[in-house]
Design brief:
Shape: globular
Bound molecules: NADP nicotinamide-adenine-dinucleotide phosphate
Distance between the termini: 12 Å
Strand content: 25-35%
Structural class: alpha/beta
Oligomer: single chain
Number of strands: 15
Length: 333
């Protein structure tokens, strides 16, 4: 065990995209696990769009990260010392351990994972929180029926890529919206989407008319903004709009809400938001299903690996520039 633990602490509330000056890089001695606790060495830090929202001093589903606190983040790593019967040194785990190299935790706050079944960072992506988000959001709220059309934005990302694959596993049509030809090719060729729409180069309303001639039965929204409005304008009767995220708005001071919401009335449709953490008691169900499909070769779990603890700020900003394909993680050990 190295003697030092580097940490990114929130130093200021960001205005727009995060900057280096919004953080303090601190170094402390590696903590000692107490009775019933374990020490985890972090290997991969998860970069999630929600982290931007956690930095704002605003009411949300979790309290904001306090100034001076270690930045909240999901982590995958290895237990290096254990004072608990529940976990042993050498066990691979994930948990909300923050942007730091080591953390002490109680076993109940960690999920033990099996790196022989999938690479460790996949448990931060399709087999972890983003995968559970896709699972509950699509299957519990979206409820796609065979033959129906599922539209998903942010389709080449961590959550969106799983949504399209789950739609196909449930015999629905999967139409994805993503930025740029490479991502569009990836979701069709590697993830098995039926169609991709490149929102950076194509006219989204026109392409939705072309590719969703009978309308959209389920719209899984990761981005909000104009794309949400284009999808609302194309809803089928009794459609379900699943509000998972609105990344196009996270860095802006003026949040743009939907204009075309009367489409819900016209089509007898619904729009429902959700937070994956509320499904905590059902995580084992999602984990079993997703790891099962992955083992059968039916679920691709691509990760996009950046390197270097000191590159945390630039790496987080890559999400907002669309510079990741699949689940973005930072390898730090
Ligand atoms: N409700 C929940 O419990 C829950 C849980 C997890 C995640 N989420 C939400 O799910 C969404 C996806 O998260 P993720 O972790 O899977 O991230 P991700 O999709 O892997 O990465 C973000 C992607 O968003 C796209 N994007 C960025 N700016 C955009 C813009 N202005 N307009 C359209 N697309 C833009 C980029 O792809 P392009 O190159 O295609 O633009 C980028 O690669 C986020 O909104 C996140 O907050 C919600």
């Amino acid at each position: 065990v190295s003697a030092q633990n580097r940490q990114f602490r929130l130093g200021a509330r960001p205005d727009g995209p995060v900057k280096h000056s919004d953080f303090e890089l601190t170094t402390e001695p590696v903590p000692e696990p107490g009775e019933g606790e374990v020490l985890v060495r972090s290997e991969y830090i998860s970069l999630d769009p929600a982290m931007r929202g956690w930095m704002n001093d605003a009411r949300s589903y979790v309290p904001p990260v306090g100034l001076g606190e270690v930045m909240r983040a999901g982590v995958a790593g290895t237990v290096v010392a254990s004072n608990s019967d529940a976990l042993n040194a050498g066990d691979a785990v994930t948990g909300m351990l923050g942007v730091q190299e080591y953390a002490v935790a109680k076993p109940q706050a960690l999920i033990k994972v099996d790196p022989s079944l999938a690479p460790l960072p996949a448990y931060l992506g399709a087999l972890g929180m983003p995968g559970w988000t896709a699972y509950f959001g699509l299957l519990d709220i979206g409820k796609p029926q065979p033959g129906q059309t599922v539209l998903v934005s942010g389709a080449a990302g961590a959550v969106g890529g799983v949504v399209g694959q789950l739609a196909k596993l449930h015999d629905a049509r999967a139409v994805g919206i993503a930025g740029g030809p490479a991502k569009c090719e990836y979701i069709v060729q590697e993830l098995g989407f039926d169609v991709a729409i490149d929102y950076k180069h194509e006219d989204v309303p026109r392409k939705l008319r072309e590719h969703c001639p009978d309308g959209v039965d389920v719209y899984f929204d990761n981005v909000g903004g104009d794309i949400l409005d284009a999808a609302l304008a194309r809803l089928a009767r009794k459609a379900r709009v699943v509000i998972c995220g609105a990344i196009s708005q996270y860095n802006s001071a003026e949040f743009q809400g939907p204009k075309n919401y009367m489409s819900l009335l016209i089509n007898n449709a619904s729009m429902t938001g959700f937070v994956v953490f509320n499904y905590f008691s059902r995580y084992p169900e999602a984990i079993a299903a997703l790891t099962g499909w992955h083992a059968e070769g039916k679920l691709t779990a691509r990760v996009d690996v950046a390197e270097g603890f000191e590159n945390f700020v630039e790496t987080l900003n890559r999400l907002f520039k669309g510079e990741n394909t699949g689940k973005l993680v930072l390898k730090i050990a």
